[in-house]
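Hi everyone,

Forwarding the result from last night's run.
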Amino acid sequence: MTIPSHVIDMLRKVRATFQAEPLANRMQPSEAAFAALRPVRRATAASVAKYWNRLLETASTQDRDALADSLTMADPALFDSNIENFIGTVKIPVGIIGPLRINGLNAHGDYNVPLATTEAALVASYGRGAYAATKSGGISTALLYEGVIRTPAFVFDNLVNAGLFVEWVVNDIETLKAAAEATTRHGKLTSVEPMVDNNIVFLICRYTTGDAAGQNMVTIATNALCEDINARCPIPMKAWYIEGNFSGDKKASFLGLVTGRGRKVSASVTLPAKVVETVLGTSVQAMLDYGQVANLGSHLSGQLGAQAHYANGLAALYLATGQDAACVAESAVGITRMEARGDDLFCSVTMPNILVGSVGGGTSLPSQSAGLNILGLKGAGKGAALAEVAAATCLCGEISIVAAIAAGHFTRAHQQLARHR
């Protein structure tokens, strides 16, 4: 067998930096003394100062002042419900796009959408998509489904006991539902679906969560359900776990793509050929041609769904409005479609895992509350509308990036707006 020359060169470079004895010693376990960092839930000026006394060994006073600025330190207790070991706040640039016209079942009107990001060109791109969509009459949106899931796992000695357990759960479902719902004013257990793998049973517990994203809500409710099972179920059980890693929580999964986790939203707009040409600087056919190649690429690479960059818009919107940013991992799954409608271009996104809330979580923090207020979507009764705005925003990003790549403008835009501005 002949080893390619570039592999040999790489191995030689690695070997040139490798000294066995010093590296082996460097990587040995260390028993050096250290001062443990004790978790603190209540944030005060004194607790923040204590942490910074430690951090100033490596950081500077300018670093401290950037994070623990006067506005943040005016009331550190504001952040008690959202973080431990508080040392300050990070300032992420926030841009605005709009007006984004949405003609939805829940979101209806012209919205100014705040996007928090450090990626130059992102706001400009989404803003261009929003302008094209609004100039075309706006984006139609519909919330199709809602249901946050938690999937506890139960371990038995054998398949027979697993089957008997499922039978018991089915017969006792109303009592289990009552136990779960007793923990929350807003959460409702809508279904419990068993998934059996020999001696292990996963229960897919689906909830509606009102206007909250509901991650903590469904965890607490499901824990109560599991405790009730553990206390009353006559089938011998070896172990149970609050989450069997089946739900797709903060992970892209086929389960989420097919059945949804959170709020499922579909959004669409038909762009007249003239708007495509004058606003997006390309043609309907060019966008369709590129879309066909991009769709093939998504299938060949094994992506879940087929889309360009939902994560960009979602992360920016989530950060600006106090959502759990880690949920982008599952929310950024779905299908983008572009089809000819006569001379015009039909564009749509269907996103089954949008996890957002207009209450709870980080939505009450000062900056994030301001983001929701800019949208006019803070507080009770606004969660469904916020999900539709999220999908519409992602559609704007899909339109703009497909147009940019189809027209050959993608690299030039990033050079002008990011590298050379």
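DSSP finds 17 helices and eleven strands in the chain.

Cheers,
N.
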